Amino acid sequence: MRQPIRSKNFGGEILEKFLSLSQEKRNVIIDAALRMFGANGYKKASVSDIAAAAGISKAMVFHYFGTKKALYLYLINLCGSIMMNEVNEKFDNSITDFFDRIKMSSQIEVSVMKKHAAIPSFLASMYFENDEEVKDDIKAILDGGDDFRNKIAFAGVDTSKFKDEIDLKLVMKMLSWIADGYTKQLSNQSEFDFDTMLNELNECLDMLKNNFYKEEFVRIE
Amino acid sequence: MRQPIRSKNFGGEILEKFLSLSQEKRNVIIDAALRMFGANGYKKASVSDIAAAAGISKAMVFHYFGTKKALYLYLINLCGSIMMNEVNEKFDNSITDFFDRIKMSSQIEVSVMKKHAAIPSFLASMYFENDEEVKDDIKAILDGGDDFRNKIAFAGVDTSKFKDEIDLKLVMKMLSWIADGYTKQLSNQSEFDFDTMLNELNECLDMLKNNFYKEEFVRIE
DNA sequence: ATGTTCTTGACCGAATCGGTTTAGAGAGGT
DNA sequence: ACCTCTCTAAACCGATTCGGTCAAGAACAT
Q1: Is A64 among the domain residues?
Q2: Minimum CA–CA partner of A165 in chain B
Q3: Nearest residue to D15 (CA, C1')?
Q4: Which structural domain, as residue segments, surrounds residue A84?
């Protein structure tokens, strides 16, 4: 469109530069980029911001990724494969208990965040990204790959164990609020608190379960 | 610093231009500015963005407010007074029940959002604003005025009615998660759904209350 | 020393920034 | 008809920042 003709990166030689870095250095750069894109969106996250957050010079970002767009798309695919891996590895469709399903989803999310804490907010912003330069590519990637979000859906969950007077739709909504706030709080946490937070959420879910389930389904603690 | 010498707005003639607008037009502009600043922060929210979101030309923003900074500070003070009014009007310190206190806070928040739905996210971003051009002014305003947040604090709340086995700190944390997600969901809602949402939250709180309180404190519905 | 690889600060044209000026559209008075 | 006068947007301003490049120094190996 507006950028000068580029003759490089036919075949991906540029990304090799990045991939040959140590994992530690790569993670610093990836985390910085995920954070900036996640917080500011594609357009308003500048390469200078990302470079500064990663502690490298702007020129290095272009050295590693070629263009801003290539970096963004690389991050999308990276997050996609991390999510898919984690879901395929941990998701168990045979778990039908409502709260256990939620616990499982949370464990998956925490596993993902342990790799890159900024992935959830990055993906959330990506889903709403509307910039002309990338939105078609996002749509293509989302349409092409199987969407991991569908796999965590709550189809086939056993809801018969709830007390009769419990409003199930309300519980769903409440839990989605809890999960939202929980994730948000996680994002601001240092890596070491992940499991503490996860335990707290699980205790929280147990508490709800103990109070919302019919007595015969409440396990003794 | 870098801007040319300005000789206008000694005494606030410029803001009068804005205040003489119809309330409807003013609200459109205010909402647009709150949304943009709230979502992107002071620096990354451009006056062009705000003007476009408000459906007016960039020149009009400067016509009404003089500078970007003046607009931002105007919004802070506006939100501050809206919050203070609402808190002073609705906050009742004699309510000591845990859940009733939360309901009250939510009602206050919804009243505020009915005036400008973007206020909560704007204030949240303001608290974390760190741009050199405005951070000192923010600190001055926050230090100067009595902070409405302190008034909603949960000091003096009666927690004795909870079942003994309930982990109170956990309930607090869980409720803060719910409130977060709830607010977030509210922000994306059209004005007419506010009360529906508020009712849902209240039902949700009643449900928790019925299950977490000792039986003698649960009112018959 | 010499060649090679990394890395960067300075730089590019284009775009956008905060902010100003100009000029046209419209309302109202005469 | 003409003349103000107000409101508004488009065109414009210099400065900054944008995505992206490049020449030259640091670092390392030989």
Answers
A1: yes
A2: B207
A3: B2
A4: 13-217
Q: Which residue of A has its CA nearest to B170?
A: A204
Nearest to A44 by CA among B71, B35, B46, B59: B46
Q: At B108, which CATH number?
A: 1.10.357.10
The answer to whether residue A192 sits within a structural domain is: yes
pLDDT tens digit string along B50-94? 999 999 999 999 999 999 999 999 999 999 999 999 999 998 888
Domain presence at residue A106 = yes
Distance CA B202, CA B198 (A): 6
Question: What is the number of structural domains in chain B?
Answer: 1
Question: CA B110, CA B182: separation in Å to the nearest integer?
Answer: 11
Residue A6 has pLDDT above 70, yes or no: no
Partners of B184 on chain A (C-beta within 8 Å) are 180
Q: Could you tell me if residue B178 is inside a domain?
A: yes
Asked which of A59-68, A70-79, B111-120 is least confident by mean pLDDT, the reply is B111-120
Residue B219 distance to chain A (closest CA, Å):
15
Q: Cα separation of B194 and B203, whole Å?
A: 14
Coil, helix or strand at residue B13: helix
Out of B40, B182, B211, name the one closest to residue A40 (CB).
B40
Residue A37 in contact with partner chain B when CB distance is under 8 A: no
